[in-house]
Amino acid sequence: MQKNKNIRLTDIARMANVSVGTVDRVIHNRGRVSEENIRRVKEIMEQVGYKPNLIARSLAVKKPCHLVALIPDFRPGDYWSAMEYGIRRAEEEWESYGVKVSVLTFDQYSKASFDQAVSRLQEMPETVDGVIVGTLFKEAVIQLSEHLDAGEIPYVYVDSDIEEQGRLAYYGTDSVAGGEIGARMLLASMAFQGDILAHIQHDKGSMSTQGQKRYSGFLQYLKQQGYEVNLVEVELWIGDEDHNEQVLDETFRNHPGIRGAVTFNSSCYILGDYLEKRQKHEIRLVGYDLIDPNVRLLNEGYVQALIAQRPELQGYNGVKALSRLLLFDERPQVVNLLPIDILLKENYQYYNKVSNLLLI
Predict the structure, then answer these.
(1) How far is CA 241 from CA 12, 199, 244, 273, in A?
(2) Exposure pattern of 42-69 as b/e (b: 16+ CB <10 Å)?
(3) 235, 200 Cβ separation under 8 angstroms
(4) In sequence order, which residues have a C-beta less than 8 Å from that of residue 26 and are 6 or more positions away?
(5) pTM score, two decimals?
(6) Contacts (Cβ under 8 Å, ≥6 apart) of 40
(7) What is the DSSP letter of 62?
(8) Of all residues in the chain, what percent are helix, strand and coil, respectively (each to 5)?
(9) For residue 103, what pLDDT is reported?
(10) Is 235 buried (19+), middle (13-18) or exposed (0-12) by CB count in 10 A?
(11) What's the rounded Cα separation, in Å, for the pair 331 and 337?
(12) pLDDT band at 1, cuts 50/70/90?
């Protein structure tokens, strides 16, 4: 059937043998319509290439759309502040459609804090129509997902995926591949010589979902390369410099063959600050995320490479996906992998949240 840009609702109604009111209800996803009529109307719309006017549709909806983003605490220049930037940019663009986003934050190194944020989410007095979830605590996120599924509330994952859950969509990188790339960059900078220090835990807690997958990818690459390395694991704590110095001093004293180091989230600066303080120029360090402390160390040469994942786009696309579903019944692709960016001293200045959003 030939497509016609001038097709009208009355034309679709005539071809589908239904009323104009039925066509309107199908387009706006409201009121009761039989499955057969929904199928027939959508089939005709597809055949003629009918594209409803989005502004007209949004006016017809007349219902505010309240989304909640459940993400870690952040300060300016942090990884999660970039995520919030993308969320707010999308909120601005969808504001005329009635979209509002509330942000609930938690301590990314404390499951108890995440649980408290979930309780605040569940106790919110206003209706929650959709949720963006930072998936740091896998088991707790699965419990939250089951609760949202039971309430038929759509949700989007960011940062790292949990494949077996019923999320509307995931926006982020392939975390295992991110770990493989980290290993490749580190081994190349070490000229494949020496042992490796791995910062695997934070604040007396286990790694995040993202960190676990990156670590898995890191080990996978070492195995593929047949690199028989002595991998020395250390637990460093956020904000406890005395503890970290004591642990690292002892580690380097007991393992003089260490020539490389890696951390699996944005706290690369903990190791970098120590290397700078002890003037350990021979240690090659690779980390993740373009946050201010990491950038300084990249410039000073104590970090060889940072691997980034465009958090702005993750937040932006999460809001966009939920808004399009709730307002226009449009479902996105479930898994949406973003590029994994390798940032060096020579190119990081071209990578920022504004330029990333211009890629949309």
Answers:
(1) 69, 14, 5, 10
(2) eebbeebebeeeeeebbebbeeebbbbb
(3) yes
(4) 33, 37, 38, 41, 42
(5) 0.79
(6) 16, 17, 18
(7) -
(8) 50, 20, 35
(9) 97
(10) middle
(11) 16
(12) very low
